[in-house]
């Protein structure tokens, strides 16, 4: 059996270790300055690839990352495994139910934020192909379709991260953004698969039609029967195999099988892995903790290596063509922002929120880079366009966080402590379930604000059922807009045993803060919730609060902790 | 850059998926019948390899696992990455401090359980080489040293699992077993590295001496300066990088670097990864949760694929040579059991416990298989001896669990409920820390048994400091032998907020059971502790207990749950 020699093995471990550590250090540095990790990870490839290391020390570069032979093959195999797993995790984050739950607004925003950039992209690529880097030997239709698709995609991971940082993830606004991005990505990937099928089909005897039909058949099958089957099998796996290892292994194996199938069809392995993620993702049996584990491993060990290897293939300095970058970046932003803005306005969002939706969906991040990588690999685009595409992906992602933050920041004069009503603290909560906890807190706040407890509890519970309010770090923030409430009112309950509020990290809520605001004061609700989440994200602070017997002592904690809190977004 | 073609990628994903799923199914089946997972995983290789699939359907076998070309190379690269990570996790489990903490008993058991099998193995291999499969073209000294080393090694993972199943892990007996196995494995790997260095050195100009010196230098460096550095850097990584992804990635990258280094020295990559694990393993900053995550991923996704691929290389039916298997199996058992038994007796263990130590250390499991795999790869042994070695590894592991269980099972007439003293229940515990909780429970039990509370608390605390009593599933079982106590006495305290008892899974203890026994009644303590751990391992049962206000209601839970409890060892 062919196997690696000792020297090749040594090089393999050395190159993998180098890719991982440089990518992680630069990725961590990106996070520090409030940017997505993928920015630093891509930069690691630029540093280790032909752009810098290959120019400064070509001998070391060739030794470490040989372009031919066993090591190149193994690295190619490994990165394909890594990227398939990364797309599996990305697929897991796609919750199809949220798309349907949000209804009209999502359809408007989602559809227009695809149609606009797609139309503009296709138009420009079709009429002025050379301006955006078309290489004559390629097929113009495929090229134009690809450019249009690449411009239509959004970056769900970066959008999610931004919304979480701002504590907007579980608001109506957040749900619209997420659902629209899911729609964008899903349609984007289907379009891209169709393009790959066309390229592939043209080469083989089966023809384009067969490949496209098989692709569509597989996608529909996975999202209907596949999804149904996964939802049936998961509980069985959880019950009868070693947890969570058994479940993880089954999921990875399934992703590998579907990757093999889609690669065989001709639309690349990652498409299969992605659809497995989508099919499994919204199962109530696949809990947040398992998902979190898989995500930690793949996002911090596999994805960095993959993104860094992208830089090993391309010289970013040589292929940087300023006019191309400017043109591509501009049409990317114009198409997406115009489409999303129009959709948001039409669905009745406020002015600032509409702009925030537009800039949020404009972030392309890792998804566009992966698309570009596959397009380059399949000869669909040249290296110059690839570089322009990577820079666009990065630039739009870097803009996303600060702009959304600036657009949605609100009046900071209202202090958290002043909103906690005179009787608005209880420790311990008697209730063991979500509904009970909400009713208990509603009763506390009722007399202080002069509104009937049942009215409050019902409003909050109605909203809670739509969207659970557990965040992370054992905190839940149930909320509602209440007619006739003059100013925000908060009641806090501590529960040592914890109440299940369906939080992200699966941990029961030990701090439940009921946040009531006057109608249309969503911004206040978000800010107050954000402050609570920031203050109590540390275990020690929550532990102190669990031992606070009265409102006075709880307020004392707020005050001392508030003085030393980290700036928002540093987490 | 060389890369895999579409077809090769498709085959890669298909073969990986097949290896993973078959290995996991058979591994899970092994766990079900109370055997180590590695048994089923090896069997998967036999099924998918030349032994069965290659014989029944050679066409499919060649297609799926080609012996030559890009796919073979990628699989070879991948399995080397997997096995390095597996050894990293194995190294993490090696707690050097326990070896020193146990003192004389461990040194006696550890030393004799290496010296005996080593001497017998070397003697037989040197004097009767052909009887145990020596192939004339090889070097006899290297061969004899390898056989001796392979017989001296133990399987820490299988021993740990057996001890955990029997709730013996955190007893004096368990600590002796674990520490002796750590000593066996560490010395075994060092010996094996020296053998590899000899083979490697003989081929190159540097010579044997240089390679051996570098190996020893690296090992000593990692275990002193390397360990010291890791302990300094870990807290920094935990504080300033994304948790736990940042820490995991740094650890994996370090393992890759050391793997590259040792592979370059000539003693195989896994040795470097293993030593990184040992250096980091006993750091108090590397918490159980991170370790557990890494372990889940590697043990359930990477290790199964690795062990299955072993079977792809060897035809187990063709190379099965009964006399060789019998001889090898016999000398393996005789040497190890005699040595360990003598050591245990000399260090003053009881008769049954000495036999249990001997059968425990006799399990070879995955460690011997990996040794054999590397020896086969380096041409040190032939396929027939490899098969005998795998069968010995499996056979001794299969024996381990049932024999240790049978030897240590005790009188079952004493009921758990009857041991809980008249005032032996409190809910909630007032204490927030280990010491306080022990004092609180000691005070409860004191009047019921007529022994001063401070005497009880001190004995328990002395033992607790040596070995924390947190097990898993939020349960802690502090214990001590108390002079003058007529029969076992238990006091249970429930703590909704949890008390940190340094448990395996890092979760705070919500159920703290103080188990007091007359001196020399360790067996009763183990059994009672085991029953509590079994009964309350389910979240729901603990939750019910957290709501039990009095001893009576707690006893009621014991009774109902006892009636429906699972048989011991099914977990």
UniProtKB/TrEMBL annotation, chains A, B:
What would be the name of the gene that encodes this protein? nhaS3
Q: Provide the primary localization.
A: membrane
Q: Which GO terms describe its biological process?
A: proton transmembrane transport
- Where located? Membrane
Report keywords, A-Z: Ion transport, Membrane, Transmembrane, Transmembrane helix, Transport
Looking up InterPro entries in the UniProt record yields: Cation/H_exchanger_TM, CPA2_transporter, Na+/solute_symporter_sf, PTrfase/Anion_transptr, PTS_EIIA_type-2_dom
Q: Name one GO cellular component term.
A: membrane
- GO MF entries: antiporter activity
Report whether Ion transport shows up as a keyword of the record.
Answer: yes
Q: Where are the transmembrane segments?
A: 12-33, 39-61, 73-92, 104-128, 140-160, 172-196, 208-229, 249-280, 292-314, 320-343, 355-374, 386-408
Q: Where is the PTS EIIA type-2 domain?
A: 418-561
Task: Give the membrane topology.
Answer: Multi-pass membrane protein
Highest taxon listed in the record's lineage: Bacteria
Protein name as catalogued: High-affinity Na(+)/H(+) antiporter NhaS3
State one Pfam family annotation: Na_H_Exchanger
């Amino acid at each position: 059996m062919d196997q690696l020699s000792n020297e090749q093995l040594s090089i393999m471990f050395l190159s993998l270790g180098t890719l991982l550590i440089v990518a992680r250090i630069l990725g961590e540095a990106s996070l520090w300055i409030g940017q997505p990790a993928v920015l630093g990870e891509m930069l690691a490839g630029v540093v280790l690839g032909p752009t810098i290391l290959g120019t400064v020390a070509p001998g070391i570069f060739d030794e470490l990352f040989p372009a031919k032979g066993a090591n190149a093959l193994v690295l190619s195999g490994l990165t394909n495994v890594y990227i398939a797993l990364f797309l599996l995790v990305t697929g897991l984050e796609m919750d199809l139910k949220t798309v349907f739950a949000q209804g009209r607004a999502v359809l408007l925003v989602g559809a227009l934020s695809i149609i606009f950039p797609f139309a503009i992209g296709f138009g420009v690529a079709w009429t002025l192909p050379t301006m955006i880097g078309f290489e004559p030997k390629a097929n113009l239709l495929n090229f134009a379709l690809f450019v249009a698709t690449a411009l239509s995609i959004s970056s769900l991971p970066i959008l999610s991260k931004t919304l979480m940082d701002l504590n907007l993830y579980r608001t109506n606004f957040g749900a619209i953004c997420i659902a629209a991005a899911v729609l964008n990505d899903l349609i984007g990937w289907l379009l891209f698969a169709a393009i790959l099928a066309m390229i592939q089909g043209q080469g083989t005897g089966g023809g384009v039609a067969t490949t496209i039909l098989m692709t569509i058949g597989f996608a529909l099958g996975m999202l209907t029967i596949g999804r149904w089957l996964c939802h049936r099998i998961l509980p069985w796996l959880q019950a009868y195999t070693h947890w969570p290892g058994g479940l993880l292994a089954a999921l990875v194996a399934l992703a590998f099988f579907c990757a093999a199938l889609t690669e065989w069809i001709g639309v690349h392995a990652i498409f299969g892995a992605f659809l497995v993620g989508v099919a499994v993702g919204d199962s109530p049996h696949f809990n947040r903790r398992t998902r979190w584990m898989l995500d930690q491993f793949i996002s911090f060990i596999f994805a960095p290596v993959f993104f860094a290897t992208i830089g090993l293939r391309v010289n970013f300095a040589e292929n940087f063509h300023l006019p191309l970058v400017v043109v591509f970046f501009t049409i990317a932003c114009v198409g997406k922002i115009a489409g999303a803005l129009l959709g948001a306005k039409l669905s009745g969002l406020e002015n600032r929120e509409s702009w925030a939706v537009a800039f949020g969906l404009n972030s392309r991040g890792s998804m566009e880079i992966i698309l570009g990588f596959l397009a380059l690999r399949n000869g669909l685009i040249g290296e110059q366009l690839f570089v322009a595409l990577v820079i666009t992906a990065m630039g739009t992602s870097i803009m996303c966080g600060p702009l959304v933050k600036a657009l949605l920041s609100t009046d900071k004069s209202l202090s958290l402590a002043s909103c906690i009503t005179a009787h608005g603290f209880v420790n311990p909560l008697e209730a063991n379930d979500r509904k009970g906890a909400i009713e208990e807190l509603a009763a506390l706040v009722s007399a202080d604000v002069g509104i009937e407890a049942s009215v409050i509890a019902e409003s909050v519970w109605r909203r809670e059922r739509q969207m659970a309010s557990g965040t992370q770090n054992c905190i839940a923030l149930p909320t509602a807009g209440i007619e006739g409430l003059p100013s925000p009112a908060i009641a806090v309950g501590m529960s040592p045993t914890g109440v299940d509020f369906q939080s992200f990290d699966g941990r029961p809520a030990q701090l439940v803060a009921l946040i009531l605001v006057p109608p249309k004061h969503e911004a206040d609700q978000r800010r107050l919730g954000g402050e609570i989440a920031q203050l109590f994200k540390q275990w020690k602070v929550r532990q102190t609060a669990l031992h606070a017997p009265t409102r006075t002592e709880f307020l004392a904690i707020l005050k001392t902790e508030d003085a030393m809190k980290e700036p928002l977004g540093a987490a």
